[in-house]
Amino acid sequence: MALNKRNKAEIKLNKKHQGKEFANEFRFVGKVAPVRKKDEVTDSWNDVPFYEEGETFTGNPKRTLQFNIETANRNELKVELRGFTKKEVWVYSSTHKKSSPVAWADRFDKSKYPDETYHLIQQEFDQAEEVGNWIEADMWVDVQGEYEFDEFTNDEGKTFKIVRRKINRIYPLKNGEVQLKGLTKDTQMRVYDSQTGGRLLGQAKAKEDGVAYVKVGWLNPEGGKLYICKVDGENEGQRIEQEYTSTTVETERMTVLNNIDSEIYVEDKASKTGKKKPITYVRNFRSEDFVEINEFTMQLGIKSTYQDEETKDTKVNGVYLSYGKERSMPMDVELITYYQEAEEGKTALADAFSRLNRLDFLVVEGIDNNRAEYTMVEVGEKEEDDNPFEDVGEKTANYEQVAAGTKKGLEILRYLSGTYVKELLSEDDIELPKVEESAPQNDDPFENTSISDDDLPF
User: Fold this and answer.
1) pTM greater than 0.90 (yes/no)
2) What residues in the chain have per-residue pLDDT under 50?
3) Domain 176-259 sits in CATH 3.30.1490.20
4) Could you tell me how many helices (H) and strands (E) the chain has, helices first?
């Protein structure tokens, strides 16, 4: 569930059972790569298709979109979208401020809508197919979505915590620009990737100088073809084919630039209204101008915290309240705050989190890590009986890069000011009722006594 943009601390209450339902969101900008899966038979790693169709255990059609997005050098995060068929969908009218149900099979038939002001709320089932038709490796995209938390218990009784990064919206970065000259001011122009149908790559109106500057993307970095048309009201004119290269193509009426820096919008932290501002995004992890866009915001309840005595890093055992039919479902989520020295007179963030108490609530912001980390190790001399350089002083140390592990998990970087509420939650909110198992009766006086881990003296 998405956060309220005006008040990120506002908690939704379920209309049926009045349970609290938390919200979160993430945003990743980066390069697309396939998910890799190990073949249990051959023991080799294979690329998983970006888009697949299949069936559920009950035989219903399902569609799956999944890929890794590299947000910085060696930080790959798996994102996914799973869609299933339904009995009905909802269409919405901004004119009437109303929603109306439509049968699944009729979702694209506008004659079945209440009137022409209604539009279909896009379904995950259709969105997965749509994106699957154009997503490709090495493309740069902007992905926005939310985390879903779950648990899985295997046959041996071992429980695993699962975190899914669900895609809500995805936009290819615009890495090109089409400049169309000799137009009348406000003439609308569009650019597509095919002669008919296809995907809209960008659109713009001509400015005072008679030029329409159309930002387009994603363009093939090596070159290809574009299809350009003029828009008159609701009608599009004939699409004109134009080839482009890896750099610049210029004609009398048109200039096409490829492989230019992208422009993206980010939240202006100085704005109190959540206003966005444009920044230049450099698609090169090794550039000194590269800025990683990898962020999440999450409403969070506290179960416990633990601060390491040596590193002073604080582990946060949180709880996230998800939708449930009969009650809100508490899902465990683990986060960490790495210790950093604070300014004089200020408290380190890791120290502040270590002082949180069970049932507290707050909104946190952070970064999602799955980073392969490396270190440089000096290469020593090989043990050779006749090595003439073993004891010389005039030599330079030689180093090699070796894997040092992987930095994983949700890292808290900031607390959203004004969102901390002490003991906002209850034990009923964060714990599911224990299922009582039938047992033979006995005379044990402690039979009905419940002792939690917090009550134990050790």
Assistant:
1) no
2) 438-458
3) no
4) 3, 29
